Amino acid sequence: MSYHAPVLVVTDDESSPTLAALTDAGLSAVLASSWPEAGDAIGRLRPSAVVVDSGMPVAALETLARRIAPLQPYVPLIAIGTDGGLPENVMPFSADQRDLIHLAPRLRAALRVRTLHATAMRRLSDPGDLADQSGNDPLQDATVLLIGRGAVYPSLSVALGERVGVVGALSIEAAAKHLNVRDLDGIVLAEGFSPRVVDAFLTVLSEDTRFRNLPIVVGIPAPHGSFELPNLEFVDGDAARIVGAALPLVRQRAFEAQLARTLASLDAGGLLDPRTGLLTEAAFERDFATAVYQAQTRGEGLSVARFVLHRADRRAVNDAARIISRLMRKMDFGTLQTDGSLLVVFAATDLRNAQAIARRLSSVIRQTAHSARREARIDPDVSVATLLPDESARAILTRVVQQDRRRAAS
After folding, report:
1. pLDDT tens, residue by residue, 204-227
2. Which of 49, 126, 199, 392 could form a disulfide with 223 if both were Cys (CB 3.0 to 4.6 A apart)?
3. In terms of residue numbers, what domain contains 298?
């Protein structure tokens, strides 16, 4: 992979191992700058990424981070050997020189996010549209899988839950189920598992391309194995330190997911909602009217399910929509309505089969979607209606809404 803009290494050591490691990795031009000159070097070189060597004063790092944050496209900022209290756009990296072999893979993964951002900016007729979509902190839409059963698990759950959506798993088996049914922005593996189990779990993740680039923060001492996981961090400390190491990596991953959904929407001619991966409301209305007409003409079945997530916040609703987008059949389609309800159309499906499919989707949402309010259980109310002879698209939608209202009244 080639990058035309240079990678800037901020260091006061002319023989810096960091500089040597990145140069040997075959990245595009790797240039060095001293700490006092770093700000001017960024303005002059407009680097594709910035790597700060260990030892840079925290105040100087904060100034550098503020300089880099507004740059477009995204400029990754990696700080080596820093500990806690980092600016939001600074990603940590271990100070252990033996780990420098993993620095280039982490940088390549970050640069792929930059390339994705540049692609989205180029393809949008108005790049301001992308700024509107990603103007909020990507963490507001991020979900992290927390695995553990030790004493630190409750404090980790609270600390993570204050910033991101959290899906909890008390076993590796439960974690595997979550990984297979939903999109996640990171994994935090807490104590409670033997080194052998941790080693096996990380090996499986490194061998699966779906999870290889996930941020993975492990809150126990590193096992002896070596893993091809560019965003893997081992943090020995309390919940605050673990969360502090995880959030910058999770933020980058969530931003990458936003960009991927935006590009998918562009590929579909703007018919997909970049927040959810489902159809926009306008596209849904058009496709639904066509589907009803074709079903009536051909004498085929067609059913509609409406999912209502009472007391759920916007993150949980978007989360549920993305779960449905991932799990529904290729022949089906759906949308997230402005009132927060989800409509899913099951093509060529009678009422009995539609009810079974809707129950399965509802069960997955109940088990894996979580509200920011930890006490609020996400338990969707589901209404299903099937198309009657000579019924219009508007009529079947009215019926499915009325079913939900009757259920609420009772």
Report:
1. 999 999 998 999 999 887 666 678
2. 199
3. 269-409
Tens digit of pLDDT for each residue in 240-298?
889 998 999 999 999 999 999 999 999 999 899 998 999 999 999 999 999 999 999 99
Question: What is the reported pLDDT for 23?
Answer: 86
- For residue 343, give both structure tokens: 């409509």
Q: What is the largest CA-CA distance in the chain?
A: 79
Q: How many domains does the chain have?
A: 3
398 and 280 share one domain: yes
CA atoms within 13 A on the CB side of 265: 24
Q: Work out the number of other CB atoms within 10 angstroms of the CB of residue 290.
A: 11
The whole model's pTM is what? 0.87
Among 63, 96, 123, which residue terminates a domain?
123
Q: Are 164 and 291 within one domain?
A: no
User: Does one domain contain both 83 and 55?
Assistant: yes
pLDDT digits (tens, 9 = 90+) for 356-390: 999 999 988 887 666 555 545 678 899 999 999 98
Determine the Cα–Cα distance for residues 347 and 364; give it in Å rounded to an integer. Answer: 21
Distances (CA, A) of 382 to 5, 186, 344, 350: 52, 30, 11, 16
pLDDT at 273: 94
pLDDT value at 320 more than 80: yes
Q: How far is CA 45 from CA 15, 32, 60, 73, in A?
A: 21, 11, 19, 14
* Other Cβ atoms within 10 Å of 66 Cβ, number: 12
Q: Is the Cα dihedral 138, 237, 99, 36 positive or negative?
A: positive
